[in-house]
Model the fold of this input.
Amino acid sequence: MQATNNLEQLTSKYLEAFASQDLASLETMFSDDVVLFDPMIQEVKAKDKVLEVNKAIFDGMKQITLISKRIIADSDQNTVAAQLKLDFDGKIIDVVDIIEFDEAGKIVAITAYLDSKQVTG
Done:
């Protein structure tokens, strides 16, 4: 079980790496069997596949800016809810990520909730 403040720190580190498009840092944060679910891409399993998805997102963006974040951690479940406002090249998107960690502090699952109309509209 991770301490709540440690989960918050791990989540902040993940969000900063994502916003700075730092694939090398993301790779160190993901477990080998990480699962990503995003309504735009559905489900992706395994670290290499999740990194490919992130690379594709980054390749399609000049800049990602983390405008605001709110992190709520549940240390009993090793799970975090992160409420985000992101600026993807001028498109503001509200996202809630549910992030699950293993005992080693690696990300084992990310489920993203967002209004796909904000992305496509």
